[in-house]
Structure formats: structure tokens, C-alpha cells
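Q: Here's a chain of 531 amino acids. Please give me its 3D structure as C-alpha cells.
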Amino acid sequence: MEKEQKVTFWILIIFGIIYFCIMIPANLTGAETAEMLEVFEVDEYAQYPHLLHILTPGDGLYQTLRNFFIYLHYYYGFPFYFWSALSVLPLKLFTSVWPDNTRVIVCVLRQMLSVFPMVISAGLLTWVGTKFRKPLMSAVLYILLLTMPAVLQNNFWWHPDSLTLLFLSLTFFFLDRDKLCCGKNFFFAAFFCGAAIGTKYLGLYFALAIPVYLLCCRLEEKILTKQIFSKACLFLLVMAAAVIFSDPLLLLPQERAEIFRVMNQQTGLSGAGIFLRYENIFFENGRLPGWLTENYLCLPWLILAFVSIAAALIAGKSQMRTMAAVLLCYIVTACTVNLNAAASRLHYFLPIILPLSAAFPLFPEVFPSKRRKYAEVLMVILLAVQVGINLPKDIELMKIQLHREENSGSIALFHKLEADYLPLPEVPAERMTRVYRDWKVYFPESEGYAVKTDWDLASFALIDEWHPDLILLEKENIRTYGAPDVLEKAVDAVKMAETASFYAAAADNSIPGYELLLENNFGMVFRKVLQ
């Protein structure tokens, strides 16, 4: 690297380390017990037992390896669980925190699976936009990427989105380094594109971008027409090899069938909804949704990013024009997929808005050299203004995260129940107290209590089968699934009828055999009536 690039590199390294450390206190919250994970992030709670299983030794080497590779939770690819296991393995081998100190374990997972990959991704995307040749522009862009409120929120949970974004960013990085030659960097890009597919399918967003890249290579006369097909086939071959390398269970027929079953299930849920049907109304009254512009970029900056791509396509040099075309094709594909999904969640747009933001530095480059400096200064100012808009929201999000345990209605409900009513005097000492709870209702596993939850929600049939002494329900579920019109919105009206009748009864405090014991703004606790 040139001197200017080295200076930029070290500026970003220092900022990245500071940023990583700032996230630690917030990521120590919400994880006092494994059950507390479900209060704040249901996905973390679903993933956590599988991670423990991966790192559980078997009776021999074969069973230990089987536990490690047959990770069972096939909603995400093996790279997510592999890197998760690698991150916490030192805790298991060299400290006393394993497996009881959930707070420390989950903090390490959030830092290493969300914060660390995000820091690296932001650096790679900054390189794609600036090549580190403009320290001030690079620093402001890097800070912008990491201070978007959506990025901050993604840092607060243990999920594969940052790792997938890292693989996508590496794909852009190596395509940029390839310089239209279709050489080794092109195939490095293919490998990381495959890794992104193997982790969370998002490498498929390059489906249009890669053919366009090959066409640009031909138009710039870097490859021959007859080479386009062979290069495309090699790219697909390397990409497929990376998918298998990242998820070797695809080589096992039984596990491959289960992976495909889960994939098809997820595709169906994405298109229709889980329990209730709903349309993805992305444009609100002809406008972008507020949650997008408030948590990523304000509308003028979103427009400016697309203007930067358009300017590069019209007036940029060959390399810049090609990367702008690749970026545009990638974003069009990604937006098409997301806008046809059943729901738009905030983190779904991380792999769209962050790569799009890498286009900002392209705009000054299309100006003549005498005016370019002024354009660069203007762009730095505009990016700094967006950072200034983001920071107050970031500070508020950090405060919420730091105090979320003490402010949680779910945790408060449990503590009130524990202090005033437990143990239940009517339950014999020799029998465990049976508890049913909704997903986000906090009730940790403890001696003397058998706690049950169900991903398909409560119903009279489940209650009759389980005969719980206590039923803990979330008011949001009661409002949603006990509503009079819920069957009209249901994906499966027959199945939903059982759930709807139960939650409607809870809303009226008329669950047969139970009486309302306790409630707060979050939930309700019902106690079995003595016969």
C-alpha cells in the first residue's frame, strides 16, 4: 500500500478497535440465563442449545465429531455455527465460565459473530469506495457505515447477518481487485459468494451482477468472447465448491434432505407469513417506510447514493463504471427479493444499504481534477451530516440496551411472581410445579419447576395435555391471536382456530379451570383453580 493508504488503514483499525470495545457493556446485557435470551431475542434462544450441543464431547472421537458437524439447526449454514463454536471454545477449554455463565458466553458470541464481522465489512466496503486513498473521506464513510442505527441494533444480537455481510463484502472486494481480468481474484470472489450462499443464501443476490461483470470484461476487451462461457462455468464451479465446503453436510443424503426441507419451509414462510398472512407493504402512501430512513440513511442520502452510481455509470472510467454496474445489479436483485417477501425486517436491508453506501465516494471522481477537490469536500460534509443525524439515535439505542433488563416487563412479571406467590402452597413438595409460558415470558429453569413452551403457541389441547399449575402469557399474543378477526388473517385457519379460542378466553379471563393471579403491562399469569 502507498503511504496515504497505510495512514487510512491505521486510522480505521484504531476506530474499529474502539468501536468493538464500546459494544461490550451493551452485549453483556439480556443474558443472565439462557431463558432470558428469549425475552429479548427469540432467535438467540433457539440457536443457543445447538451451540452447546456442538461443543459437547461424545463417548468417543466419532460421536464428538458427529456432535460438532451435525448441528441440527439448519435455518443457517454451518459457517455460522463453526465460527460461533470457535469463538467460545477458549472459554470452554481455559476458563470456568462454561457452561453456566451465559452472560459472558453470549457476549463473546455477539462480539465475534456480529460486531467483529461488521467492523471488517465496513472496512472492505470503504476500500471498494475509496481504495483508502483519501483518509478523511475513508474515515467519514467508515464511521457512517458503523453508526447507522440499524447496524448498531444488529450488533446487539448473535445472528448470522454480519457474517453473511462479511462474505458479501469480500465478494465485492475481490471483484474490485480483479480489475476486469477474470483472474484469481475473480475466483476468490466466487468462493466468498458461495460462502454467503452457504451461510444464509444471500450470495444469490449476485445472480445478475456476475454476468454483467463478465460482459463488462468483454466490452473492455480483457477477455475474449469465447472465454465468457468458460469463465462463468468456472465461477459457478468454485461457488458450488464453496457452498459444499461451507456446509459439508450437503454431502450426506439424510442431512442434505433435511437442509432442503428447512430451506423450502423457510421460503414458504417468507412468502406467506408464519401464523398470520400479511402483505409486505413497503411503500407507505407512496413513500419509503420511516423505519428504513430513520435507521439507515435519510431519503436525500439514499437518493445521493443512487445518483453516485448513475454518475459513475455515465462518466466514470472503465473500472469505476464496471463496479457501479455490478453494484446496481446486485442492489436491484436484493431489493426484488426483499420486496417480494412476506415481511420487511430491519436487518434484511443490511446487505443492501451498506454496499449501496460504498457508492458515495464515486460521485466526486467523475468531476474534472480542478473541481474534484470541491466535490470531495462537499461529499465529506454531507456524510458527516448523516453521521450527526445518526449519533443521537445511537446513544438512545445504547441506553436502552444497557438498561433493558431492569426495564423489561417480562422480567418484572417473573420477579413479582417469585416474590409474592412462589412456591405455590397447593403443589405438593414431592411434585414439580408445572409452568407453561409464551415465548417471551421469562421463567428460568430451576429446581422444582418443569417449564414448557411451544413454538406453535398455546391452545386448549396443549393445556389439557400438560395440566400446568401456572400459565404465563404475553399480552401482545393475547391481543394478536385473541382478536375477533384473527382467523381471516390466518395462514392455516383450522390450526389457528385452536390458538385463537384459547387466547380469546385468556383476554376475557375465562380459561376453564384457571384464574388470573397476576398481571402487568407485559403479561398475565393464570393459576390453576383448586378443585
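Q: Can you summarize the key feature?
A: The chain has two domains: 3-256+294-402, 409-528.
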